[in-house]
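Entry 14. Ran structure prediction on the chain below.
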Amino acid sequence: MRWKPCASAGARASPPSLSAPDIPRSRGPRPFVAPLARALDVLAAFGIRDRALGNRELAARTGLPPSTVSRITRTLLALGYLLHDGPARRYRLAPAVLSLGYGAAADSNIPQAAAPRMQAFAARHDTLVTLHARDRLQMVLVGRFQPAPSSAPPLLEAGMRVGLASFPIGGTLLAALPETERYYLFEKIERRARRDWQTLRRLLGESISQVHDKGFCAGPAQWDPNLGIVSAPLAAVGQAPLVLSCIGPAARLSRIRVERELGPHLAAMSREICQSLLTP
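Output, structure tokens:
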């Protein structure tokens, strides 16, 4: 069965399957507010373990000129999105940033609908089950369930980020996006990747083809090749797409198990969650 997003009256059809050779280099200009994008890049540069960052660190993380970063941090400080430690000359996120996240969380009922199914899947298949959301060119872990505390792979905490160009989590998300948005993100990834683009281009094309053909894709974790990941898109009508994944030791995620058990069951869980959101 080929993958397609949950349908409703007026919902757009799923994008066509895209193989690696179909990824374009350019799709022409699009409406874009560069100063806003740079300010958001600065806010996103703060990681989960960062207490405070200086302008030089922010410039290094964003790739923006230090003078530009300095103007942006002063503006964000004036607007209440940053706090300033004068003696240390460093900035930290202000509570106003949290309000943006709370607003987004309150607007989506997907995590609540997904939680009991994710927990049941983790217990049944003895794997860690995660839910990722896109934050520009990164995927953020927003939910996780595990069968037992000792079975969770390390370094998988709420808020952990992996690149959008990662395989298979990022590739699964890209497969669920509308074609124009996907092309725009490809261009951004290419500019960041540079010499690695051809390899990423092939991997992303493979993951997109897997999702469109089977409803899921699988592969080793890029941060730890000893871990295996199976991912499926969660594309509910009217919501930004998310990614469901099950993660475990690669030795326990054989190809047969992935193809016959984990992949189909993960894709089925995604469809069940979408359907539950359509039910009044």
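The chain has two domains: 34-100, 108-278. Will compare against last week's run tomorrow.
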